[in-house]
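ASSEMBLY PREDICTION REQUEST
Request ID: AP-0331
Submitted by: J.K., bench scientist
Number of chains: two
Total residues: 386
Priority: normal
Notes: Please return the full assembly, not individual chains.
Input sequences:
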Amino acid sequence: MKQHLLLKYATQRPYRDTPELPEGAVYDAALGFWTLNGDPLVRCSEAAAQRTKKCDQETGEDQKGE
Amino acid sequence: MTPRVLILSSAYDFSTDLVALRLRELDVPFVRLNREHLAQYRLSMDPIERTLIVRGLGVDTIVGPDLLSVWFRQPVFLRNSPADALPPEQQLERSQWSAFLRALSIFDAAFWMNFPQATYLAECKPYQLLAAHRCGFRVPRTIVGNDAVTIASSFNTGMVVKSLDTVLLRKGSDCLFTYTTIAEPGSLSDEEVAQVPLLAQELLCSKTDLRVTVVGDRVFAVRILADGRGIDGDWRVIGKHRLTYEDLNLVPTIEVACRNLARDLRLSFAAIDLVETQQGIVFIEINPTGEWGWLSNSQRQIDAAIADCLSSSNPATVVQ
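STATUS: Completed
Returned structure:
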């Protein structure tokens, strides 16, 4: 039996429920953002910001809060 | 002062960090509740007094008396089913915390970005197309359904297929995700289509993708290019290193149509996908909870625009 088109065309990749974070990154609930060595994680470096802004380019838009 | 802004987000939504930092710079008190941390707080909502007491994780505050706005970065329904049955505790956790977050609609006197009811309707792709058409956009010819014969006969010159709602499925230790895919109408068979409906659209060739981000009365538009050129098919399958985002001034009629569409769908935030073709600009879809962190930079300060909108005492767009 042929697969449904949506399954046939689906991309399969390993599931991750949390993104890769720089070592030492900590979420501070009182501040409301992640920090790295006391500084805001997304401002620590361009590389960190790029890595964290969109943890998964393909699905980030669709899995908020799931 | 008690919080002026309530942020309902998730821990790994780093775009929320960008706005949190902007609010901090503006000296606007806010509280951020992440979906993953809810059970670590002790939360008490009074639906008549319209207050929410938040205790735990270093937070001890009451939301309500000074509340100006709510930023709702949450799904409005549980979209994806796990591959295996969840234990009862996890099922309960998923359903009841989601209901709790929706119940924060009691703060209906605040400005919302976006109100859950508006997001719910705006997530419906066929309704988006109708709303965009009503706002004056050209929309692609579209058939939604599971009839291969009708679909094949509707798109003689090529078509794309996409899911009616996001497909993000678990399969063992993997996940499955569907992109917009170019398909050959002549090769469609009933058994490939009949089981579940899909959305089929005319193929738009030689296109350039545009992303328009609407934040209150601000509009940010970019062209999405790979190696300096437009992309056939779904741009999200292209490696990030090849993509560039070029700022764009929309023609007034399209900018007005974007604003009108967001307003008609009662959205104070919207991420709109358009394509530029030789025949003009065509509407593809609108995402009421769309990502924007990948576009925000010092020249394109979407984070600042969102923070301004949430902290403004006279928001440009009151939606609910």
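REVIEWER COMMENTS: Residues 69 and 310 of chain B are 6 Å apart (CA to CA).
SIGN-OFF: pending second reviewer
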